[in-house]
Amino acid sequence: MKRIILLGPPGAGKGTQADILCQNQQIPHISTGDILRGAIAHETALGKKAKTFMDKGHLVPDDLIIDLIHERLGEDDCENGFLLDGFPRTVEQAEALDTLLESMDAKLTNVIDIEVPDNVIIERIKSRAEEGSGRADDNEEVAAKRLKVYWEQTAPVSHYYESKGLLQKIDGLGTVEEVTQRINSVM
Ligand code: AMP
Asked: Is the CB of 60 within 6 Å of ligand 1?
């Protein structure tokens, strides 16, 4: 059974690789970004709170995200494993996840960090914005902000797992298939 975290900067291809991994492993793909966009679409209280942060490229406050994950990991489909995409985004979230997993008597099996250089990320996000991905936060200005937030708040999450000896670094350059192969080789 796999309990996987997928880390990496915005535009690293986490979503694509997450879909492939989840299909192979038969586990639910839990994307906090997708859950939040769903909440915004349904105009829930969470969605209304989250929207103002997301539109600016800022992180949604930890307490909202931790509650959301607590609820999601308690659902039946997570009993045989799960993949987290876009969470944890701060060291506080990583610590809260540790506490939550301990209470579930569960352990992470893989923490995969997809590494892509900044200049490549900026190009990828720009072309995604130009193609009109349909995501409100995919414009150049917000993308640059998200990258800054990543380096300031999320990159430390990789160090957190590295210091626990859990981090598996994967080269994110190349084709989707090449990156998938590298991930499969550490599973
Ligand atoms: P994503 O689809 O993962 O790139 O997330 C899109 C946006 O949702 C981010 O820029 C944040 O504003 C918000 N978000 C998603 N996941 C988290 C999280 N774990 N913590 C805080 N904010 C998040």
From this structure: yes
